[in-house]
Amino acid sequence: MINRFDDLKNNIYNVGLSNANLNKLQLCEKIKQYIPKFVIKIDDFNKDPDQRNYIVSNEKLEQTGWRSYYSLDDGIKELIKGYNIIKNINTNFTNL
Fold this sequence. Notes:
Elements: H1 5-8, H2 24-34, H3 59-62, H4 72-94
């Protein structure tokens, strides 16, 4: 995008992956593939304060030729790795 700034400036793009365009429940189910003990709770009594649960189009961005180097699976694995690092650091501090 930086290399094509003059062609693409003054436009608005949704930045995402069309093959990772999931709603919240679908994303939770995807995470559960990596963390089998992950609990998905659907509560019919309380309202989620974050009502964003929709699919967006990345077509405009993809028409520019932009492609991500990373997949949704890559992102989930990276977040799990980061969480485990933080968890280990916190565990080490509580054992002092």
